[in-house]
Every structure is written in structure tokens, then in C-alpha cells.
């Protein structure tokens, strides 16, 4: 048996042999950090959101590695190690100011309100993105005002009017004769149901439906430009 054949046999049976050469290596701390920076250069994100982006990158590797014959134990081990790496990257992004959940919550509170989302819907959206309750409360009060302040009430009414314009409700009804030809009570109740599903209170919905078109448009424009 020749020297090269013996060497090859030893390599083949080496229990410490690395993964098959054509298998995709797992993401490193460096590649995950680069992925984080690329994402943050394009999108605003929360700490939870960035962690999910990086975890999906690891999951893509895991699925590909599995199709290449990778061992389940190795996949599980790499995923476990990646959790600590991702947590460290998120912490570092927060330290350098690339992640700021409070600033994200303030900005998104305003943009969602301008798009016709109720205060309740804004809170639900931001909670889903991983904003903590204390940070959320402070950010929303700073951006939208205290729930019972006149400023906050005005914003909520204006947001309801944005929704009314989108759905052609109340002052934005498509046809002024609609109420005369239809059951006015039924039309009104349908409109209230739309507002309720969007998270607006009954009093806000009634105010929005009662306004005339000129005032409604003025309030919408004021909100959009605020």
C-alpha cells in the first residue's frame, strides 16, 4: 500500500475531521455583525427586531447545512452559540447608538398616528415589535401627549378622520345621498364598527362622523403636517 493511500485512509478515519468541504460554514460573529450593520443602514429597527433578523440568518444557514448532510447535533450547537453572539451584537449596537428603542417608539408612534392608527393600535404594534411597557408609555406620551390631554385627544380624533377618509366614512362619504337612500342607522352602526375594530373609542368615532367635510379635511391636514 503506497504512502498517499495510507495517508488518505488515516484522514478518512480521523474522528476529528472537519465538516465536508462543500458544506456551508456557520455564520461567524463577524458576518453576523456585518449583517446587522447592513440591516440598520437600510431600516429602523428595535432590539428585538434586529435579533430576529440575525436569528433568521442563522436559521437559513441551518436549513442549507441540513440539506448538505449536516448533523443535527452540530446545527443545534451552532444555533445555541449564535444566541450569545446575537445578544452581544444587539448590546453593542445599542451602545454605539445604532439601536434606540425609545427613539424608534417615538418616531413610529407619530407615523402610525398620521396613517390613521388609533392610540391603542399604535401601542399594540410597538409591543409586537418588542418595545417594553415602560419605554412604550414614555415614548407615546412624549410623541402623542398624555392620553387625557387635549393635544392627545386632538391627535386621536385626527387619526380617526384619516381612517374615515380612507374608508369613505362620515364627512368623506362617497355620496351625500347615501344616508337618504339607505337605513341611516345601519350605515352609522357599520361606521362605528369600523372605528371600533381599529381601536378608536365610541366618543371619538361619533365626533369624527359628525364633523363637516371642511373641518375634517383641515384636521387631517394639520395632523399630517405636525
Automatic annotation (TrEMBL):
<dbReference type="Pfam" id="PF02631">
    <property type="entry name" value="RecX_HTH2"/>
</dbReference>
<keyword id="KW-0963">Cytoplasm</keyword>
<protein>
    <recommendedName>
        <fullName>Regulatory protein RecX</fullName>
    </recommendedName>
</protein>
<comment type="similarity">
    <text>Belongs to the RecX family.</text>
</comment>
<dbReference type="InterPro" id="IPR036388">
    <property type="entry name" value="WH-like_DNA-bd_sf"/>
</dbReference>
<feature type="domain" description="RecX second three-helical">
    <location>
        <begin position="100"/>
        <end position="140"/>
    </location>
</feature>
<dbReference type="GO" id="GO:0005737">
    <property type="term" value="C:cytoplasm"/>
</dbReference>
<dbReference type="InterPro" id="IPR053924">
    <property type="entry name" value="RecX_HTH_2nd"/>
</dbReference>
